[in-house]
Amino acid sequence: MKKILYIISDLLIAALLAGAYIIQYFAKRKLGMNRWIVFKISKVKEALPIETLRYAAAAAVLVLAVLLIILYSRRRKSYQKILLPMVIVTAVLAAGYLLFTLYFTQERIRAYYLMLPLIGLANAVQLGKTFAAMKLCKVSEP
């Protein structure tokens, strides 16, 4: 059952990241999509404090990723070897999300505010999967 859930979460992460790429692709290629994005984002900016939410999400991902790395490094010997690649992938995804959040703006990437939640959700799924693996994948002591 654990393997099935890990596979489903990996597929979900891949679908979220692919969805973010597809949104950006069509925003660049199709004028109608570009206009729709500009219209929707202007409405969302009026309704929500989007800048505050953007930085709060980046801070949450940073804190959880650092916590994960600290927890892993403290008890590295007690975990199975399969957990190290999961921690590395989580750290890379979190670093990519932070760089994307801080470096890009809507002027550089038109679908920026539509891509952020997808990439953030992919990070949340990866963090949850890795925390669950840390809980479940302990080396049995003889």
Structural class by SSE content: mainly alpha
Average pLDDT across residues?
87
Number of strands: 0
Ranges where pLDDT stays below 50 over 5 or more residues in a row are none
- Put simply, the count of helices is 5
The portion of residues assigned to helices is over 70%
Shape: elongated
Determine the strand fraction and express it as a percent band: under 5%
Query: Whole-Å distance between the termini?
Result: 25 Å
How can the largest sheet be summarized?
none
Q: What is the element string, with H for helices and E for strands? A: HHHHH
Give me the Rg, rounded.
18 Å
Topology:
Layout: H1 2-29, H2 31-47, H3 50-74, H4 83-103, H5 112-136
Helix pairs in contact: 1-2, 1-5, 3-4, 3-5, 4-5
Question: How would you portray this structure in words?
Answer:
With 142 residues, the protein is an all-alpha fold. It is 82% helix and 0% strand. It has helices at residues 2-29, 31-47, 50-74, 83-103, 112-136. Helix 1 crosses helix 2 (31-47), helix 3 packs parallel to helix 5 (112-136) and helix 4 runs antiparallel to helix 5. The protein is elongated.
